[in-house]
Every structure is written in C-alpha cells, then in structure tokens.
C-alpha cells in the first residue's frame, strides 16, 4: 500500500460509495423510484463511450461483433428511453398488495432531482471505469471492498456533519429504517460491490453496467406485486427492448473474446517464425485486443 494507491482508493470510494450514492438518494427524495431506475439505464451507454475513449473497449465496425456491441448499446438505450417517456395503457392494479407506499407530491422537485441523478450516473460510470485501473494495482477484491466501504462511510459521515446539523439524523429506530440500513450494508455495499469488482476484473466495466437495466424491470415487477403501484404497458415494452439490446451486446462480446482466445492459442505463421520481430508485434497486438475486450 503506497500513498498514491491510497489516494486512488480514496477517490474510488468517493465516486462509488459516498458522493454517487448520496446524490442518488437525494434524487430519490425529489422524484420517484420508477423514474430513478429508468434514468440509471443510461449508465451502460455512458460507460461504453468512456471505455472507447480510454481504449478499454475495442469496437471494430467492420466486424460483426463490433456491430453487435454498438447495436446492443443503442437498442438498450432505446428501451431505457421507452421506459422513461412512454407510459402506455395502465395494467389493472393487483388487489391486496401487502405494503402500500404512496409518494408525497409536496416533496417532489423534478428539476433538482434530475440534475442530482444525472450527476450520479456520470460519477457512477467513471467509478466503473476507474475500477479497471485500480484492480491492476490492487487485485484483492475482498479487502478492496472493505476499504471502499470504510472510506465511503467516513466520507458520508463528514457530508452529514456539514449538511445535517440535527442530532435526530443519527438516531436509528428498530423499524423498517433499521432493516433498510442492514440490507444496504450487507447486500448493496458488501456483496454487490464485491461481485461488481470481480466481474469488472473478469469481463470489463461495460459488461457489468449492461445488466443495470434489469433493475428497472425488477423494480416495476416488485412494486406492482408488493407495493400496489401501477404497471403500464410502456414498462413491459421497454423492458423487452432492454433485454434484447442487453443480450445482443453480450453475444457480441462473447464471440469477440472467443476469437481473441483462438488467435492467442494458434501457432505462429511461417513469416512469424522466420522473423521474430513480426511475431512480437503480432503477440503485442493480440494482447492489446484482449485487454480492450
């Protein structure tokens, strides 16, 4: 552990555990859960563009795999926009929902909430990109998860001391708020962050973020069955489009990686055997393509 590496993990904690989540929760206060999960579907597209700019993702428009990646991203973004802007006819509400939660219109501020959510999506995308560089220097995902959560908790505590001066903000009562804290700490901050770090190391940041649109579908289904919220055909149509785009991109990445592995395992050609310089350049090009994918 060096001081520059500690600063890098500190910034990683700021982007992924404190600043991003605090803006996310603040936007949730001013908008609605369905709107939040719909807008976060832009994270894969932002991450994909950043990965291309930083040469973490290689896209060859002359290759069917590259075309599948681009089409999958665009189709997934189209499904996210459908979820956001197209409501459609209302599906009959499910009677007898176990929990009834209604939002308070007096607290809604869509302009402020949208600005906070857009900032959260950008910092979240940068967090996924930064994981690639940090994992190369510190590949231990479990201890990295612990440090991210510890530093993120300390940063959030400082934010609270600066913004919220009421002692009641620190009180914890044994009701649904307590179980939300327990669930967020164990599942979201510990298990989910560790799995994201592991998947980022194995498949890259774009692969991880492409699964985020599924949260919109799950939120719509759970809100319909458990919270008695309305479900519209626009959510079903947008969810189907998102799934098509998601698996089209994943198919392109999987075929692309299989081609790179087959190239790495193939023996050198006759020209490469005669000229070692050609073999070295070819190997370096294959390693660069494998890193980008």
Descriptors for this entry?
293 residues, mainly alpha, two-stranded antiparallel sheet, 12 helices, 75% helix, globular, disordered C terminus, transmembrane, transmembrane helix, EmrE-like, EamA_dom
Textual characterization of the structure:
This protein has helices at 3-30, 33-39, 43-53, 64-85, 110-137, 141-163, 176-203, 205-209, 213-226, 233-265, 270-274, 276-292; strands at residues 90-91, 231-232. The protein has 293 residues and is mostly helical. It has one domain (3-264). A two-stranded antiparallel sheet has the order 1-2. Helix 9 packs antiparallel against helix 10 (233-265). It is globular, with a radius of gyration of 22 Å. The two termini are 28 Å apart. GO terms for molecular function: transmembrane transporter activity.
Strand adjacency order, main sheet:
1-2
The string of secondary-structure elements, in order, is HHHHEHHHHHEHHH
Number of domains: 1
Helical proportion? over 70%
Major sheet characteristics: 2 strands, antiparallel
Principal-axes geometry comes out as: globular
Number of continuous helical runs: 12
Strand content: under 5%
Count of β-strands? 2
| Mean of pLDDT | 75
Distance between the termini: 28 Å
Helix vs. strand class: mainly alpha
Radius of gyration of CA atoms, rounded to a whole number: 22 Å
Query: Which residues form runs of ≥5 with pLDDT under 50?
Result: 278-282, 287-293
